[in-house]
Amino acid sequence: MKLTCILFLCLFAFYIPAQELFPFNDPASNIGKNVLSVKMASETFDELGQQRNAQSLRFMFGLSSKWMLSETFSFSNHHGYLLPSDFIQHDSLKGNFTNGEKKGKYFPYRFESLNINLKYRFLAHDADQRHFRMSAYLDVSGGNEAHYEAEPNLIGDNGGAGLGIISTWLIHRLAVSINAGGILPSPYLEPTTQIRMDYGKALYANMSIGYLLYPAVYKNYRQLNINLYSEFQCKTYGPAAITENGYPVNIIQAPTLAAGSYIEWRPSIQFIIHSNTRIDASLATALYNRSWVHNYPLYYITITQNIFFRGENR
User: What is the pTM of this model?
Assistant: First the structure.
């Protein structure tokens, strides 16, 4: 499906109420100045009997009312240190070729990469119990992971850079946010075998919606908050290209290395305790096509804690 069709489905196919602390996508709003927010996220899914686990530790700091800096450290058992020895095969008729990687292999759990995100809020129209805000952001990620799918991801899977724009509307109990951008991944380089893998460039458009379910009326900041969310991840990306010793490797019947596009639905429930501690429980399932980076369903648990400096008001 073309990108325009994906965007159309994301923007218009679903509409339900929400609040602004989205589990998967940042809002255009920033956290307060001199506030440090620590987010611990855990993801798990089954891959042909092999349990895949990924965790991330994210530090978000409010530099000012307009600027926010985030650093994310990621860990998982999704990759080996190198590509598998049988990833590229050699044949007198086919030449150098690959059918992609076989799923379900064991990989050690280890540190993957560091991602840095800088966000700038350039527009804010605020009124009583409502606002419209827009932000732009830049993502930079390091690492040289042996990632064997064409789809890029700057948290854990790939090094590279990305940028995007976020638009967020808040109206009483309802919040809607659209996050659109692109990813330019770095190639994977394996010096010992002279393998180079170039990943597909990606465009994405994510929509987040949800609803403040409880309380009906705020009495104090220590009340328990319960929010419901519905988020849609829409992505399209190009094919991978592989060379060995400078010569192209033929990609044969490998959907994991081909261009693709998909839409995922990610519903969540969120509990906010004392206006400071946030617990999210979520899952993800495919609505259109699929991502080859993971299987379905995916399960997520996220805990976020805010730390206030120099008497910052809550």
Answer: 0.89
Cα–Cα dist 234/220, whole Å:
38
Please report, for residues 60, 62, 64, 211, 214, the alpha-carbon distance to residue 139 in angstroms, rounded to integers and kept in the order given.
13, 16, 19, 29, 34
**Residue 47: both structure tokens together:** 């891959």
Please return the burial class of 103, using the count of CB atoms within 10 Å of its CB with bins 0-12, 13-18 and 19+.
Answer: middle
* Cβ atoms within 10 Å of 259's Cβ, excluding its own: 13
pLDDT in tens, 61-78: 999 989 999 999 999 999
Measured distance between the N- and C-terminal CA atoms of the chain, rounded to whole angstroms: 45
**What are the residue ranges spanned by the domains of the chain?**
3-308
Fold adopted by 3-308: Porin (2.40.160)
Q: Report the pLDDT value the prediction gives residue 310, as an integer from 0 to 100.
A: 64
